[in-house]
Amino acid sequence: MDDHTISAIATANGIGSIAIIRLSGDKALSIAKKLSTKANFTARHATLTNIYNKENILIDEAIVIYFKGPHSFSGEDVVEIQCHGGFIVAQSILKATVEYGARLATAGEFSKRAFFNGRIDLSEAEAIAQLIEAKSEDAAKILAAQMKGSLKEYIENIRDEIIHILAYSEVSIDYAEEDLPEDLVQQIKEKLEELKASLHSTLLASKAREGLMQGFKVAIVGKPNVGKSSLLNRLLNYNRAIVSEIAGTTRDTIEEQVKIGTHLIRIVDTAGIRDANDEIEKIGIERSLEAIEQSDIVIALFDSSRVSDSEDNQIISLINTTTQNKKVIYIKNKIDLESKFKIENMSFDLEINSKDNVDSLIKVLENIMDTTNTSDEMMLISQRQIFAVENTLTNIEESFIPLQDQELEIFSFHLGEAVKEMASITRPFENDEMLDKMFGSFCLGK
After folding, report:
1. Which site in 119, 214, 327, 443 is 20 to 30 Å from 111, CA atoms measured?
2. How far apart are alpha carbons 227 and 276 in whole angstroms?
3. Torsions phi, psi for 441 (to 5 deg)
4. What is the predicted pLDDT for the residue at 374?
5. Which CATH superfamily, name and number, covers 125-209+379-426?
6. Protein fold of 217-371
7. Is this structure's pTM higher than 0.70?
8. How many whole angstroms separate alpha carbon 1 and alpha carbon 81?
């Protein structure tokens, strides 16, 4: 890690009440003094001062707060300048910090420095990054707890248990002429089974609640002209999709975000699924099938006013084969018209008129998403963490046979790999490439 003082705008682009420019490094305080022409700043006190560029031209009146390292987010001297919001003012101050010796920060560099200076571990860093983009109140609560170290504590407890077992094995290797006592082998197996069960439970809970972190994706599917676009427009409360009596009007998937209860979800209106001759419509249908596979919840819409046909049966067959482990809501639409639709052994969750009132559907969606977070299990919040736990489980599983056969070198190898995998979630052995990729996904100024 270089020793340059870094600088970045820590707030989003656009016009707002304030913008924040953040500095971190040994020169942060001296640069703040030059910008303000003030002799000193009291740590953790807000100071109202004028900000000047290198030509001594006034840029703005701003609030400056100095955090003396190591008692700061990055563990270094940090200065935050709160100026009036707007692109020009913030950019002018940022430019001035560079003129006085700072370097523009790369994405995630503040958090990366906090990691290297021991202020946060990787699990806490990932929680911070995801909290910024949280898609629900439940997700925000989980991430806030992890930002304070709840996942770190869980991982370190698992890691310590594995190291404790590994210590028995390593000591025994030094006395290779003596086998481990049978009761000790059994105790180790039981402890490993407990660890395996705990990690497996965490893994299942995490995968089941992925939509909670990433934002639930809801696909509206059905044959042409069953009211999919009308339903989308009603959920959004504005006319986003073109509604027409002409079959095949929606040629591509349309994706929008909407807040349902405490959740921000992505709703996808798909092209009507049928046997199509039009090449453009075929592409749209292919994208509809992809949307179904990628969704967490599927809304299957059927037209109550039309007699069921082979296209309806095709939709049902498609849903049955592509929606395993997904929640499907079967809806009979256009109930204001004479009912003609009927398929044997098929029941509907809801009956609505998508042009009128969809409150019942909103309640069902809210209930599905709310009940997703009923588990008290610890949750992994990234694919990186999930892969690490999966690899840990693989190594624990592969350690049982050498343990039983008293092949302690092989047993120790697998447990050593398991320790490395668990450590990678919080504080891995040096791997600069992995760290650069992870922190590079953060926003600028964080």
Report:
1. 214
2. 19
3. -85, -5
4. 56
5. tRNA modification GTPase MnmE domain 2 (1.20.120.430)
6. Rossmann fold (3.40.50)
7. no
8. 24
